[in-house]
Specification:
There is one protein chain. The chain is built from three helices and eight strands, in the order H-E-E-E-E-H-E-E-H-E-E. It is of the alpha+beta class. The longest helix is centred in the last third of the chain and has 14 residues. It is globular.
Length: about 140
């Protein structure tokens, strides 16, 4: 398997909020989601209700894109991830593994009825200006 670089994994694991974009016949839609990351599977785990627009859009296409970013005004410290891949509703053994990871990261989610989804990135681009202005690290499946 094509292993995701450790620098990307560390960045993803350090943060907890991603921005997700979906598409339907009327155009694009974006939302913010808390996530847990399973590096062994390279899966981002989110929870979202079936009634949300971004989840309804999945009936049109399961292809998604998104970002995870460090918020800063200092150009030399800009770091972030852009990704594109596919999303699916989790079931069976994958659901059990994902639920354990998600609830460990966000115990408050135990109080909600949750539907877990996995995002499997096919490409990840990391920008890290600490390594030089506009420095990119790209991983593709």
């Amino acid at each position: 398997m094509n292993t995701v670089p450790e620098k990307i994994i560390k960045f993803i694991k350090k943060h907890h909020l991603l921005n997700l974009s979906t598409v339907d016949q009327d155009g694009t839609w974006s939302c913010s989601c808390f996530y847990a990351y399973l590096p062994e599977e390279n899966m981002l785990i989110i929870t979202s209700d079936n009634s949300t627009k971004h989840i309804k859009n999945l009936s049109f296409s399961n292809k998604v894109s998104g970002t995870i970013a460090l918020e800063t005004k200092i150009i030399g410290l800009i770091r972030g991830i852009q990704f594109a891949g596919e999303i699916k509703k989790l079931e069976g053994n994958e659901l059990k593994i994902a639920e354990k990871a998600y609830l460990k990261r966000f115990p408050i989610a135990r109080l909600m009825e949750t539907t877990l989804w996995s995002i499997s990135p096919k490409i990840i681009k990391m920008t890290d200006n600490r390594l030089g202005f506009g420095k990119k690290l790209i991983w593709e499946l």
